[in-house]
Amino acid sequence: MSALSTLPFLKPVHLRSPRRSPAGQRRHTLPASEFRCLSPEDAASVFEIEREAFISVSGDCPLHLDEIRHFLNLCPELSLGWFEEGRLVAFIIGSLWDQDRLSQAALTLHKPQGSAVHIHVLAVHRTVRQQGKGSILMWRYLQYLRCLPFARRALLMCEPFLVPFYHKCGFEALGPCEVTVGELAFVEMQHPVRGHAFMRRNSGC
Questions:
Q1: Would the pTM of this model clear 0.85, i.e. be above it?
Q2: pLDDT in the model for residue 13
Q3: Strand order, beta sheet including 34-36
């Protein structure tokens, strides 16, 4: 069982449509909004959103399709997808890292003994951008991480123009990241994750 399903504030939200069929019978519809961990079967939908979101801006994607499948096979519990009517509209993919700062190896490795969650990518489908979905999904993801006993902090790297967005999400800048992708340079940011015992006493974990 995924850790996600045991957390009250991250259980899938099943809001069903009130529409009825012409005969007056309630239709069987998909949940209007659902949050859940991703699986390798979601990889193609993830890559479709990511490719459109990043290639137009930076010319490349944080994760290619084979890398998405790699992380969703190794650590699906560190991912979170937002689905509306069964369609993926936003997602986060993370893995574990075991050093103070990110290095080039962090782009492809998952360190099971690590205590830092490296957030590789957050992306929102183009049809639902500018609606605050990225901020909401990040908030839910960080709440989820706070109930994982091994997670102590979240790390990410972003281009400078995204620093204000992540700052509003509670991240602090650590300075230039040593990781480079082509000519792109990044700022490394972190968010502390409170201990499992504290959260168990204070949030029902």
A1: no
A2: 43
A3: 34-36, 79-84, 87-97, 116-124, 153-158, 184-192, 172-181
